[in-house]
Write a structure and sequence with these properties.
Layout: H1 5-10, H2 13-20, H3 27-34, H4 41-74
Length: 75
């Protein structure tokens, strides 16, 4: 999917990147930030699912550890 420059301008995407870019660590990073473009919807959905899955696994691990701690304390 390609997004026209006019559509990006209408969404104020370049202005948003211009606000963020001064916080970059280096001039090269600043350049890369200014060249960013929105992802395609499928790619964006996939990238959002990854952290959600990681959080779900961590929560399950934490519950398991807490359950084990309670069992050990009672014994």
């Amino acid at each position: 999917m390609y997004i026209d420059k006019e559509d990006l301008d209408e969404l104020e995407f370049p202005q948003l990147l211009a606000e963020i870019s001064p916080f970059a660590y280096s001039p090269k990073t600043r350049e890369k930030i200014l060249q960013l473009r929105p992802m395609e919807i499928d790619e964006a959905e996939l990238s959002l699912k990854k952290p959600q899955n990681i959080c779900r696994v961590l929560k399950v691990q934490m519950r398991f550890r807490l359950m084990n701690m309670k069992i050990l304390k009672v014994s």
